[in-house]
Amino acid sequence: MTRFPLVALGVSTLLLQACVLAPGMHMDTDRLVSQDSAENSMVEMVQITPKLIAQDLAVKSQAEVPPELLSYVPENYRIGPNDALFITVWDHPELTIPGGQQQPSSANARVVRDDGTLFYPFIGNVQVAGKTLEELREIIATRLARYIEQPQVDVNVIEYNSQKIYFSGAFENTGILPVNAQRLTLLQAIGQAGIDPERADLSNLTITRDGQTYRLDYDRLTTSPSRIGEVYLKPGDKVHMGLNDSRKVLVMGEIPRPGALPYRTSRMTLSEVLGTVGGPSPLSASGKEVYVIRGVENIETETATIFQLNAKSPSAFLLANQFEMQPQDVVFVGAAGITRWNRVISQLVPTATILYTGARTEDEVRSNN
């Protein structure tokens, strides 16, 4: 990797003029590097090479599910307020269906009060919230034994209203998903909620649990071997699928159709981006001046990265097809004989940084709501 610094403000006019290239010439990056110290660098120039692609793929192939999510194992369902229970006492229809057999089960349901109690004949008020169905069955059977010889009791939940999982973002069915006695995996829940393919940023799935937010690359974890299928959802979890309307890839320069492309998956490549906008202009674009500018949160303290692709090389098409984009990347295709690199940097790096920071802030606000 080569450090690619900006010219310091105190450099003389003659030195600035030395950075200007005549039409038809290429940039001598080594010469520019020697004109400034690393301390004044605000960007880092990286050539897109097979080695870089291999390193990037190796890192991304290691995408894993946070161990905290994998460690949760659902326990038996615990009754909560507003759950509707159907309590059966065999051979005692007056306790099981006091409204008569002609009534539906819901008419004979017993709803848990907000304070977690319910009333049952002979035994009065019973604290049921937080108890499993088996625990409640034993409590009712034990207390009824004072009045009924060897009571046979069964307890079922016919309406689950106390425990919920919340879905927001780019799902077709956002809102509340009730938790029932069946264990629910993350993939099962997402299947029920349905992903909106046009609005979803599949690389940005978050789960907020007990005040902690976990970020998952849903696209990568579901298209390569991973343990995402072992993640169970916990009552109270908030699942958010990122929206791509605030996460774009900006394409500009010598191309037929400059603009912003929605970022949908973590597999969006440079070749896809260039192909969507019509590719570099054959009449005015420089084959060596294809850049990907990756912004940072704080341009004053962090170094932005600029990736350069030599599109004149036949192998460049293979590299571009393997180079994966990130949200808020800026793709710039320079003109043949570009003359002032510092001017390009001063305009594009702040733009990439503003896009990066703005999108991240908006996404965090949506995840917390």
UniProtKB/TrEMBL annotation:
UniProtKB keywords: Cell outer membrane, Ion transport, Lipoprotein, Membrane, Palmitate, Polysaccharide transport, Porin, Signal, Sugar transport, Transmembrane, Transmembrane beta strand, Transport
Presence of the UniProt keyword Mitochondrion in the record: no
Domain spans labelled SLBB: 163-240, 248-333
Places the protein is found: Cell outer membrane
Membrane topology category: Multi-pass membrane protein
The keyword Ligase is assigned to this record: no
InterPro entries: Poly_export, Poly_export_N, SLBB_dom, Wza_C
Annotated signal sequence range: 1-22
Domain Polysaccharide export protein N-terminal per the UniProt entry, residue ranges: 73-157
Record-annotated Outer-membrane lipoprotein Wza C-terminal domain positions: 336-364
Family the entry assigns: Belongs to the BexD/CtrA/VexA family.
Protein name per its UniProtKB record: Polysaccharide biosynthesis/export family protein
Species: Halopseudomonas formosensis
Species lineage: Bacteria, Pseudomonadati, Pseudomonadota, Gammaproteobacteria, Pseudomonadales
